[in-house]
Amino acid sequence: MAKGKDVRVTVILECTNCTRNSANRNGANKESMSIGISRYITQKNRHNTPSRLELIKFCPFCYKHTIHGEIKK
């Protein structure tokens, strides 16, 4: 028996600090800026968390714990 919409959905979390820095890359030094954007894949329960998910995770490009927010696929 198939369900129309699953309760648990897969979401992608992206570092908010890296995304802000990537917008300012055009005029900056390559050595001083981070190379990539940290992303994590996790699952959330749609009924318990209807809003966008935000978790504090470690970002290897910033070398510190930052807020990772849910993005669209």
Automatic annotation (TrEMBL):
Pfam families: Ribosomal_L33. It comes from the Eukaryota. GO terms for molecular function: structural constituent of ribosome. It is found in: Plastid, Chloroplast. The keyword Ribosomal protein applies. GO terms for cellular component: chloroplast; ribonucleoprotein complex; ribosome. Keywords: Chloroplast, Plastid, Ribonucleoprotein, Ribosomal protein. GO terms for biological process: translation. The keyword Ribosomal protein applies. Belongs to the bacterial ribosomal protein bL33 family. This is Large ribosomal subunit protein bL33c. It comes from Betula nana (alpine birch). The gene is rpl33.
